[in-house]
Design a protein that fits this description.
Elements (H helix, E strand, L loop, with lengths): L7 E2 H7 L4 H9 L7 E2 L6 E3 L4 H12 L4 H9 L3 H41 L6 E5 L2 E7 L6 H14 L9 E7 H5 L8 E5 L10 E3 L2 E9 L5 H14 L7 E6 L12 E7 L7
Antiparallel strand pairs: 1-3, 2-3, 4-9, 5-7, 5-8, 6-7, 6-10, 9-11, 10-11
Helix pairs in contact: 1-2
Amino acid sequence: MDEKSKLLTIGQFAALHGINKKTLMWYDEIGLFKPAAVNPVNGYRCYNYYQSPILETILLLRELDVSIGEIQDFMKNRSAQHMKELLDEKIGELDLQIMHLQAVKQTLCNHQQNMTALLTMDLSEIAVVEKEERCLVTVDIDKDITFEQEVELITAETARYQLGRLHDASYGSMIPVASIENGKFDDYTKLFIEIPSLSQKSGLHIQPKGLYVRAFHKGGWDTIPRRYEEILSYARQKQLTLSGFSYEKGINETVIDRVEDYIVRIEIPIAPPRSP
């Protein structure tokens, strides 16, 4: 007799597949997965090895959150084409979930870095750091725009890029270097959204790779001009040419209650030296 044709008890078959035997009983009751035989004397369900691939298919689809109704439809019309279409759909959904989880992980890593920096940083220090290129979603603003309008603009962009929650991205503001050098420290022209999972570049603002002057400011926006004056003085002393935009981003919003404790990270690109 073929060993694989031997009947297994419901307990043995359930243990073989790492599930509870009540699951097999329920699958039988709803007509999704029937036993190979039922003992006519005691009504015990029995299964054989050849049923394993079918059960594993059902368990795989359940793990992919395929509904019982969808699985029942599939089992009634099993085919390679039907299976491929179902798997294509679920793989696409998994790819989106993976992208979301990667974005959440990146956000958590950013928060972790910010908290580490908060515990070790010298707020008075101005330094030169190297940064990689970043793609930013931006919205245009001016001094006449209200806070409510800014919220509406940000909300529209987060919806456009299908962000489920605000923690899927980080936010900041941009001010042209030309405005800073002319003493217009409130001339903010853009808000930016950094989305870790974003791969496209078309239509986005590119924060360039290269060297940046980095500084931190603690307190309200009314005192930030003094910090910019210190940054400009530092750049002159080091004979650095600043370019593009200053990128401002709060790094401790999650752990403060007072605006006086708010810390902004300021990063400004350094223009490459001109060739002789």
